[in-house]
């Protein structure tokens, strides 16, 4: 390629020989059947080489947008290039909603699903759990259509792009709903230790933000239907709009202060009209059993000075258990520890390794699309259905057209 193509953060330079932007499904099929190796590039919001290839990178952004609500208004079928902001706008016009959103509405739905990216909430499964159907274009040009009745379905949803090109998804939808968003500051350490489960269960979606510079939590972002008054477990209401990272522009964040608003304007942390073109940051995230939440937080606290030196902010949130084979929340209600680092890979990687060692006793599973150093053998051991997934990739893609070195190492 004449242009240097990078991921959103700029820490990964893709090695592809070309970037292809098909405009129709027929053009996409020609690209797929004519390529020896290819990967699909979503919104580029991954931080490792999961999406990289020495063959062809394929963007689905140029395909015709499809957002088709079923006659029973229980599902919506979308094309593989739709982003959450586009989906939310169309669903809102129909008086419908998805159960959860990512922090950024600018990421592609198919990419978020393929890596089990998630929102927050003790009763909310990750974004992939909304999927009820998949249409996957295979390397030979054939189309695999799966739904929840198919024995391969639970393995294919969080597929890491290893099975083929997801050209369309069907998602469960629900009637639209309103939420209020509150921000509280300076949650005391005693509240964190004595009431953690109550705090995390206090809203439809709850996020705790800390820079690990002190023993408490800097901010609590609470999204719920009912109004709130007064303090929150010793944390005081913020005096005005806040950004998770102190000093960053608050006008980019979704409305706070308890004003009711539609689900798509409250569940993300950032407004749809604010479109980040690049990120001066790196990200890591680990998922562990919610039953070990406090012990895991204490383990990270033991590395506080190391972490704080290279950290912008850490977000702590919850996700409900699911049955998807490669979901980090497979079989267990989970706590997520999400770290937004400074944009310095050399300084960040040793801290990532320290955190992995500290969180290993809790069975922590890293987010597939973020920075981690865990050995592939350890990753495989953390998923009871991993061998089944590896067999599924061989059946769907026997020539390895959708493989890359990252996947080769993972699949063994």
Q: What's the SSE blueprint?
A:
Layout: E1 18-20, H1 25-34, E2 38-41, E3 56-59, E4 67-69, E5 75-79, H2 84-93, E6 96-97, H3 109-114, E7 131-137, E8 143-147, H4 153-156, E9 165-172, E10 174-175, E11 178-187, H5 189-200, E12 205-210, E13 217-224, E14 236-237, E15 261-262, E16 282-289, H6 293-301, H7 304-308, E17 311-319, E18 334-341, H8 345-359, E19 365-366, H9 376-381, H10 386-396, H11 405-411
Defining key terms:
412 residues, alpha+beta, Uridine Diphospho-n-acetylenolpyruvylglucosamine Reductase, domain 3, Alpha-Beta Plaits, 2 domains, nine-stranded antiparallel β-sheet, five-stranded antiparallel β-sheet, 19 strands, 23% helix, 24% strand, globular, FAD-bd_PCMH-like_sf, ALO_C
Describe the protein's architecture and organization.
The protein is about 25% helix and about 25% strand. It has about 400 residues and is α+β, with helices and mostly antiparallel strands. It has two domains: about 65-175, Uridine Diphospho-n-acetylenolpyruvylglucosamine Reductase, domain 3; about 180-375, Alpha-Beta Plaits (2-Layer Sandwich). Strands 11, 12, 13, 14, 15, 16, 17, 18 and 19 form a nine-stranded antiparallel β-sheet that branches. A hairpin with a 6-residue loop joins strand 12 (about 205-210) and strand 13 (about 215-225). The longest helix has 15 residues, at about 345-360. The model has no long low-confidence stretch (mean pLDDT about 95).
């Amino acid at each position: 390629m004449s242009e240097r193509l990078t991921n959103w953060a700029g820490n990964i330079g893709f090695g592809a020989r070309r970037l292809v932007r098909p405009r129709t499904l027929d053009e996409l099929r020609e690209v797929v059947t004519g390529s020896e190796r290819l990967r699909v590039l979503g919104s580029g919001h991954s931080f490792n080489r999961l999406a990289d290839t020495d063959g062809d990178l394929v963007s689905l952004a140029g395909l015709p947008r499809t957002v088709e609500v079923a006659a029973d208004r229980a599902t919506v079928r979308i094309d593989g290039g739709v982003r959450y902001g586009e989906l939310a706008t169309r669903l809102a016009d129909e008086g419908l909603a998805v159960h959860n959103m990512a922090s950024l509405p600018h990421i592609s739905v198919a990419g978020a699903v393929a890596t089990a990216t998630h929102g927050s909430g003790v009763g909310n499964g990750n974004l992939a759990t909304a999927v009820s159907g998949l249409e996957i274009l295979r390397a030979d040009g054939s189309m695999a259509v799966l739904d929840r009745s198919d024995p391969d379905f639970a393995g294919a949803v969080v597929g890491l792009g290893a099975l083929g090109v997801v050209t369309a998804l069907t998602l469960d939808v629900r009637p639209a709903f309103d939420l209020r968003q509150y921000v509280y500051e300076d949650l005391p350490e005693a509240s964190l230790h004595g009431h953690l489960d109550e705090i995390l269960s206090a809203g439809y979606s709850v996020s705790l933000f800390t820079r690990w510079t002190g023993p408490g939590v800097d901010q609590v972002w609470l999204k719920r239907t009912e109004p709130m008054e007064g303090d929150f477990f010793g944390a005081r209401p913020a005096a005005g709009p806040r950004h998770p990272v102190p000093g960053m522009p608050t006008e980019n964040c979704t409305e706070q202060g308890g004003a009711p608003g539609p689900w798509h304007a409250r569940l993300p942390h950032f407004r749809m009209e604010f479109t980040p073109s690049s990120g001066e940051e790196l990200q890591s995230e680990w998922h562990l059993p919610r039953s070990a939440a406090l012990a895991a937080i204490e383990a990270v606290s033991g590395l506080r000075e190391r972490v704080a030196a290279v950290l912008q902010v850490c977000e702590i949130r919850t996700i409900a258990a699911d049955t998807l084979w490669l979901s980090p929340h497979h079989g267990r209600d989970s706590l997520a520890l999400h770290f937004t680092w400074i944009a310095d890979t050399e300084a960040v990687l040793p801290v990532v390794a320290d955190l992995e060692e500290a969180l290993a006793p809790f069975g922590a599973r890293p987010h597939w699309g973020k920075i981690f150093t865990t050995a592939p053998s350890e990753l495989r051991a953390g998923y009871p259905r991993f061998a089944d997934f590896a067999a599924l990739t061989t059946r769907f893609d026997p020539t390895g057209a959708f493989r890359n070195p990252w996947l080769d190492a993972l699949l063994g």
